[in-house]
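Lab notebook, design round three. We kept the backbone fixed and only want residue identities now. Task for the bench partner: fill in a sequence for the structure below.
Input structure tokens:
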């Protein structure tokens, strides 16, 4: 298995990267969360990877954190979920929210992730809840997520998602806005400033 790639970031797209390692370009499919969080230093990156091999295809998947890769591997172990669906789930909700919904057996909440219907949501709860603690601790960048009022963070994020923003992007933007505005703010002001940022 290829555990990681370290090299020049030749291309960066919301769905994939091309990493040049010694003159060889590796096409790496990524979730939206990794696209937003990957560290690029002097044009170089280190991407954690998972190599998926089938009879007819070999595909490389990349992640910014161990938590993302752990959850990806856990998800593709669930019956009916392949790598493309696992990437959709990672792109559709922050890991902390996913873990909370699984722990609370909130299958209805899981159906808000694009592509997850009621049956798949119930299967996720059944097959993942006992293994969810095996995921590595999340590696957040230093931002307001740990300091923000959780109610305002959740409500403002939900409002942006309702307006069509991707959940991972919405949470990140709201956290940044809360960090800039301080503690004593009205949720309407947070949403307005977040929309302007987007």
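Proposed sequence:
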């Amino acid at each position: 298995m290829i555990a990681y790639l370290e090299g020049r970031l030749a291309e960066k797209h919301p769905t994939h990267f091309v990493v040049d390692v010694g003159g060889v370009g590796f096409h790496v499919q990524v979730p939206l969360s990794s696209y937003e969080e990957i560290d690029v230093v002097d044009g170089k990156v280190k991407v954690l990877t998972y190599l998926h091999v089938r009879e007819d295809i070999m595909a490389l998947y990349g992640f910014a954190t161990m938590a993302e890769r752990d959850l990806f591997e856990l998800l593709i172990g669930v019956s009916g979920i392949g790598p493309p669906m696992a990437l959709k789930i990672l792109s559709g909700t922050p890991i902390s929210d996913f873990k909370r919904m699984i722990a609370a057996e909130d299958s209805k909440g899981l159906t808000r992730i694009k592509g997850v219907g009621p049956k798949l949501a119930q299967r996720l709860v059944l097959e993942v809840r006992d293994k969810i603690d095996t995921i590595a601790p999340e590696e957040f960048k230093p931002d307001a997520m740990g300091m923000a009022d959780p109610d305002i963070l959740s409500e403002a994020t939900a409002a942006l998602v309702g307006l069509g923003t991707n959940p991972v992007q919405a949470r990140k933007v709201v956290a940044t806005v809360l960090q800039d505005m301080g503690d004593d703010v009205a949720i309407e002001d947070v949403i307005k400033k977040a929309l302007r940022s987007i």
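Keep this in mind before ordering anything: The first strand starts at residue 4 and ends at 12.
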